[in-house]
């Protein structure tokens, strides 16, 4: 993600964004015991994509799993997990409120 952000060229990643969100949805909606560290990484990637694409992925950011997963991570007993959740929520909110 860093190199894509640094280059400013998202086109190599563009065809995969929807599939990435599908996969994140599966990870975050797994009620069979997905480890919270995996959820943390998934939410981190979600935040990275939100920051990278902004309002270009509004439909994906409005999927129900996004808010639920961020809330779930934010309720973790781990301060590190809560920190990632707060950051991701901020990035997602910024993308959702963007008008560009």
Gross morphology: globular
Query: Which strand-content bin applies to the residues?
Result: under 5%
Q: Could you say how many structural domains there are in total?
A: 1
Q: How many beta strands in the DSSP annotation?
A: 0
Largest sheet composition: none
C-alpha end-to-end distance: 22 Å
* Helicity level: over 70%
SSE sequence, one letter per element: HHHHHH
Explain this structure.
With 100 residues, the protein is mainly α. The protein has one domain. Helix content is 71%, strand content 0%. α2 runs antiparallel to α3, α3 packs across α5 and α3 packs parallel to α6. It is globular.
Task: Itemize the secondary structure elements and their pairings.
Blueprint lengths: L1 H6 L9 H13 L6 H18 L4 H4 L2 H11 L4 H19 L3
Helix pairs in contact: 2-3, 3-5, 3-6, 5-6
Summarize the structure.
With about 100 residues, the chain is mainly alpha-helical. The chain contains six helices and no strands.
């Amino acid at each position: 993600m860093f190199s894509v952000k640094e280059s400013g060229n998202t086109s190599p990643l563009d065809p995969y964004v929807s599939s990435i969100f599908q996969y994140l949805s599966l990870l975050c909606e797994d009620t069979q015991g997905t480890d919270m560290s995996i959820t943390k990484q998934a939410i981190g990637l979600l935040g990275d994509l939100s920051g990278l694409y902004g309002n270009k992925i509004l439909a994906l950011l409005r999927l129900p799993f996004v808010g639920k997963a961020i809330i779930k991570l934010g309720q973790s007993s781990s301060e590190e997990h809560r920190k990632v959740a707060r950051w991701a929520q901020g990035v997602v909110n910024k993308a959702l409120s963007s008008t560009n």
